[in-house]
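Readers of this paper often ask what the protein records in our data store actually look like. The remainder of this section carries one protein's record, kept here as part of the documentation.

:::
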Amino acid sequence: MNLTRPAGAVLLALALASVPVTAARATTAADEVNYVALGDSYASGTGAGNYSDALCTRSRNAYPALWAAANDPASFSFVACGGAKIPDVLDDQVSALDEDTTLVSLSIGGNDSGFASTMLSCQYSTLSACERALATAGEYVVNELPGELDGLYATVRAEAPDADVVVIGYPHLYKEGGLCLGGLSSAKRTAVNKGSDLLNETIAERAAAAGFAFADGRPAFAGHEICTGDAWISSSNVHPTAEGHASAYLPAFTAAVAGS
């Protein structure tokens, strides 16, 4: 009886059998998603209800939580917090990142540029006061925000060197033109949206310089701004509603993730 051939065949079969197992393990490791959501109230879900953390207005209806629920990542750290500015992200949020992080979302810059005070001026003061507040915010956006974003983005990359990072922009808040009962005048609405354009352009430019993807909130919310018949932004708190997160931010983020 010739034992050499069967023994060789057995060894070959065992060797071949081990290949798919090894490949499968490598594929699983490569496809594992560890997601960290950073940012301010537009990321945490202020105004979207169903809060898991009332202090940070962190909502189960916010796009990071919705994306995680739909995609079942290996890990999900939701640390975005309402009211956050760039220093808050650096001090309190980036510690959630590590070398195993594979996906990061980030919305920041609005509060740093004085979003709350500017909106108060535009809602309750004259057109000239609104324009002055927007001009002051614009000076910060042009002269100071780029450097602050660069520093933050560099830290995010250092803490999560292998992650895909998606920076989420802000929507136009108001429909322009026509009447808006109980809302801002047409001139104020146009001025506020121009301020949003400047902020988004700056954020998109610095995100690109860092090698990060940018998901633009303006086309995502188009036709659903305040003063439209089907608004996805609340006129009372000027933040996306649960519908805004599900129907605008979530698709925009999902598309950016797929393209990154």
Q: What stands out?
A: The chain has one domain: 33-259. The first strand starts at residue 34 and ends at 39. The chain is about 55% helix and 10% strand. The CA atoms of residues 26 and 89 lie 33 Å apart.
